[in-house]
Amino acid sequence: MHQRVGPPYSQDLVRRLAEAEVVAVLTGAGVSAESGVPTFRDPDGLWQKFRPEELANVDAFLRNPTLVQGWYAHRRAVVEEVAPNPGHAALAELEALVHERGGTFLLITQNVDGLHQRAGSEHVVELHGSLMRSYCVDCERSVSRDELAAIESGEAAACAACGGLIRPDVVWFGEMLPEAALRQAEAAAVASDVFLSVGTSGVVFPAAGLPLAAGAAGAYVAEVNPVASEIARHLDETVRGRAGEVLPDLLRAVRALR
Ligand code: OAD
User: Fold this and answer.
1) Measuring from atom 36 of ligand 1, which residue has the nearest CA?
2) Which portions of the chain are predicted below pLDDT 70?
3) 29 Cβ inside 6 Å of ligand 1
4) pTM for the complete prediction?
């Protein structure tokens, strides 16, 4: 049997990352898997155990706010107990490296866990919102964590100012992405010299369209994923491996070249 020797990425990718003026990265749930945050579509993923139609759309929320608030409170608690992994750290270091040489870097994430920011990434666009923020559906006021206390006792959390229901600031099925975030992500994708797509299944649009748009505009596009994503065949390079292992190694190789 033929055994692959050497790293799972090409030297071309290393060289391009070392020279790129504009680097954009799209991440999905896979980048947080090694921190212990479940993904959505893997065999042990959230959508295997829970039904999105009961938990992740506005009708479900209005039908059963305590169930939906409780599910997000649970996910928030999971995220608060875990730490960023070496994959998150490597992306923060890549940003610093690109900035050091006067380049531009944008990390576009579909994740709502805040782990990139905790790892030190600075330019982060959250396409699907954040578990760490909540707001009132009636007066749209941002709500502090203290106002979510009712959830712990199984009651619906309501706005202290107007009594409206409180929802997480995440994008649900059927909802538009935050417009400014999407615009910024699209601009970075088409301006990028290198675009990395990390830990995403590539099935949820418009996020999954970003690597394709980057490629169409001339970027070199690579994905990091232990298995092929839905869009893998359209990309320039597919790096098979776990983000927490591949990315630190890739970064070392980029540094060594400079
Ligand atoms: P998915 O659960 O669809 O896909 C996770 C991807 O991560 C899969 O392709 C895995 O193979 C890969 N993966 C698993 N472990 C990995 C590791 N250690 N390193 C690298 N990759 C790994 O998650 P997303 O693509 O993020 O949307 O899902 C996209 C959106 O669908 C989510 O943002 C969420 C969900 O419904 C909303 O909630 C709006």
Assistant:
1) 40
2) 1-5
3) yes
4) 0.96
